Model the fold of this input.
Amino acid sequence: MTDDLETTPRSLYRNRRQVIQRLVALGLCPFAFPALGEQEAHEQDEADDSITPAASALNYNNYYEFSTNKEAVAVLAQDFTTDSWQVRIDGEVEQPVTLNLPDILALGTVQRTYRLRCVEGWSMVLPWEGVPLQALLAKVRPKATARFVRFTGTLRPEEMVNQRRPVLPWPYIEGLRLDEALHPLTLLATGLYGDPLPKQSGEPLRLLVPWKYAFKSIKAITRIELTRDQPSTSWQQQNPSEYGFYANVNPDVPHPRWSQKREARIGELRKRPTLPFNGYSTEVAHLYAGMDLAKDF
Ligand SMILES: Nc1nc2c(c(=O)[nH]1)N[C@H]1C(S)=C(S)[C@@H](COP(=O)(O)O)O[C@H]1N2
Ligand SMILES: [Mo]
Done:
C-alpha cells in the first residue's frame, strides 16, 4: 500500500498552474504576469526539494553507537546483526505485544518523502517506506493514563563499538508526546530508496518525526513504551542546556552552538533558510497552540 504524501503538496501547485495557463491562453487572465512570477517561484521550490542522491546520504550518517565520524558509520555498521528482530510495545496500554518485522510490515506500509534536518545545520530529502506509528499504537490500545511514548534503541556493546565508551548515556532513548506519536506524519521507517532500511540508517526499524530535529528520529528501536510522565532522553541527560524534549525545527531559536536560521542541503553549496517545523507547519503547528516555542529546543 502506498500514499502520495510528499515533502510539498505539489499536485496543488500543478493544478493551479494548469488553470492559470489555460486562462492565459484564452486571454482571460488579468493577472497573467504576477501569476507567472508566482509559478516560477513554485517551480523553484519543487527543484529545491529534490531527493538527495543515495551515494551521498548513505555515507553521511549520525549513529553514535558506531562512530561520531559521519563517513565511518556506514562501514562500522555493516556487521550489526538484525535478523529475528523483536520490538516490545508496552507500558500504559491495554494490549502489550512483542512484534517482529513481518508483523509490523503487515500493518500496511506507505511511502513518504521527508526532509530530514539535523541540528548541526545540514539537511537531506529522503524517500522512505514504513508504517505510520499510529497503526501500531492502535493495535496496543493506549490507556487513558498514557501521555508520552518512550523509545529505546539497541544496547549491544559487542557489536556497537562506541557503546564501550560513554559517548552518550546508552541505550539511545528518545520520546514523544502521545499526540505527536499519533500524528499521521510520524513514521516507523522500514525502507529507504526502495530497499530495506540500510544498517547505517537504523535497520530494521527507525522513527521519523520530520518536523523535529533529526536526533529525535531514533534508529534500531527495540522497545516502545507508553508512559504517564515525560521520558528523559539520552541527549537531555547528556547535555540538558543544549537539548530539550520537543526539539521542533525552529529558525528563530538558536542552539547554544549553532544558529538554526539556515541549513545546507547535502550536495548544495548555497545555504537555504530553515523553515519553521521544517516546512510542516500546516500539518503540525496546531499541536503546539499555546506553547512558548521560544523556549522549545
Ligand atoms: N540510535 C540512534 N539514532 C539516531 C542517532 C544515533 O546516534 N543513534 N543519531 C540521530 C541524529 S543526530 C541524526 S542527524 C539522525 C541521522 O539519520 P541518518 O544517518 O539516517 O541521516 O539520526 C538520529 N538517530
Ligand atoms: Mo543530528
User: Anything to note?
Assistant: The pocket of MTE (ligand 1) is lined by residues 61-65, 116, 118, 153, 172, 201, 214-215, 217-220 (CB under 6 Å).
